[in-house]
From TrEMBL:
Coiled coil: none annotated. The chain crosses the membrane at residues 23-44. It comes from Anaplasma phagocytophilum str. NCH-1. PANTHER family: 39S RIBOSOMAL PROTEIN L45, MITOCHONDRIAL, LARGE RIBOSOMAL SUBUNIT PROTEIN ML45. Belongs to the mitochondrion-specific ribosomal protein mL45 family. This is Large ribosomal subunit protein mL45. NCBIfam families: Tim44_TimA_adap. Keywords: Membrane, Ribonucleoprotein, Ribosomal protein, Transit peptide, Transmembrane, Transmembrane helix. Pfam families: Tim44 (PF04280). InterPro entries: mtLSU_mL45, NTF2-like_dom_sf, Tim44-like_dom, UCP031890_Tim44-rel.
Amino acid sequence: MINADQTIIWLCILVHSLCEKLWIGMVELAIYAFVAAFIFFRLYSSLGRASSINFQGACATPEKPGDDRIALDAKNDQQDIPLTSVTEEEHFEEVSPGIEVMRARSMDFSLRNFMAGSAAAFEVIMKALNRGDTELLSSLLSDDIYKSFEKEIMRRNSEGHIHEDVVVSIVSQKITAAKVIGDVAAITVKFLTEQINVVRNAAGDVIAGSTSKINVVEDFWTFEKNANSPSRKWYLSATC
């Protein structure tokens, strides 16, 4: 028979074994967590600033209306977001009058839908540029800026380069200008995005950028539409 002393000894051995396994498991988890944190830190320590589209000129707002191409504000939202939530404080006073004029001219204007639509347009246009999809771009851009995009695509093709600009996330999106000049309504949005920017040669080798580096990119895009048009579509008219 097993006496009390033997029972205590066996219990102590069992508890020690369990504690040892638990300790090893905790150490392994700690190591995995440290490795993950280290990789994350290395990735973000390589952050840089760049301009995803730097071949376009100044951010001038065209003063002539054009056809409507990007659906940025759909049916009016009765619970629209406040202008202060999508405008930088330093620009609020100059942005507010323009937005009020747009609302007065179109009961269907919605800041909520405009901001969601412009974010979607940003990613669609970036992807179309990378693919060299001139047909899609021609339906989304004004004539002047389309010529700049087309010229850039031709340059890339002539050099045999493939550009990969992947939008990882849109960090912030703020309105910096809003004006109605004549019949043209124009809104400029500052996008702060995280992107992976890579250039490859015809063989697929990376010749610029890095697939593991996230760049913080700042872009100013201006969208416009005919202020008197019943259409709720906008198109990109300027970038910088």
